[in-house]
Amino acid sequence: MHKSGFVNIVGNPNVGKSTLTNELVGEKISVITSKAQTTRHRIMGIVNTEEYQIVYSDTPGVLRPNYKLQESMLNFSESALGDADVLLYVTDVIEKTSKNEEFLHKVQHMDAPVLLLINKIDQTNQKDLITLIEEWKVLLPKAEIYPISALNKFNIDTVKKRILELIPESPPYFEKDAMTDRPARFFVTEIIRGRILLYYQKEVPYSVEVVVEEFKEEKDIINIRALIIVERDSQKGIIIGNKGLALKKVGAMARKDIEKFFDKKVFLQMFVKVEKDWRNRDNILRNFGYRL
Ligand code: GDP
Ligand code: K
Ligand code: MG
Q: Where is this protein found (predicted)?
């Protein structure tokens, strides 16, 4: 008997969805930062054993769209409700109870089992946690509730065990040696974007998209050429920085991350280009892989 299923991870920005995904998958497939909107796509990570194949999907945080880009991000989250065999709704002790009632309503009325994971319990005390659990029982009565700490790996094994019980008998959906549905280039863009989010202040990093123009793997080195797309000339200046110093620093950090990810030496070149108002332009968003 072989089990196989889709386990989809949704919730508000910054509650720890990507940290949890990496913990469940056992690989760093999703970029984690303390900034909201780090994850823009739906990213799958696949766990294989002889007996089962679990396909985890990390999604962008559920937020009210201000840009076409954010509409697409919300689409990724809503589509994750549709094809889940198990839904992991992640919240944390900081956001208390969720603000997005519309999304919660959809979660409450879906067919698949829902595990409500209250993350970051390292940041609270038992009394507050119990109060929070009581509030969630009212908001999502159908969900099973698990307090966890993705960062400290607390209670993750319990959640894994429960997931395994819940996924159905089924042949595998992907090759048994697949680790993700994403090509190598995708991880490069995500890693660079993660570094940009951490390095620059305020709005600038959110108006950035990264395109990998070249990814050439040779015996001892991977040659990568990446384009950083911004919306305005002023942003281009900020990204590059005085005498190119900012871009150099970000490039060095991103290169190290990429080397770690692929376990190989990397030569990384980065260029900056202005595409006016790309976050609102359909054709550009499509080219970047967003579904509209
Ligand atoms: P996402 O936006 O929901 O994907 O959240 P991330 O996984 O990117 O995490 C957002 C921030 O929360 C990061 O700074 C994480 O290190 C932090 N974080 C995630 N899990 C925990 C946890 O269990 N405890 C604490 N204290 N911080 C956490
Ligand atoms: K985040
Ligand atoms: Mg994320």
A: Cytoplasm; Cell membrane
Say what the pTM is. 0.82
**CA angle, 14 as apex, 32 and 246 as ends, to 5°?**
50
According to the annotation, is 21 in a ligand binding site? no
Our answer on whether the CB atom of 14 is closer than 6 Å to any ligand 1 atom is yes
3-state secondary structure at position 274: strand
Q: What is the CATH number for 81?
A: 3.40.50.300
Task: Decide if the complex's ipTM is over 0.90.
Answer: yes
CA of 141 to the centre of ligand 2 (A): 27
Q: Is 77 a known ligand-binding residue?
A: no
Q: Is the CB of 24 under 6 A from ligand 1?
A: no
Summarised one tens digit per residue, pLDDT across range 87-137 is: 999 999 999 776 678 888 889 988 899 999 999 999 999 999 999 999 999
Domain count, the chain: 2
**Whether residue 207 has its Cβ less than 6 Å from ligand 1:** no
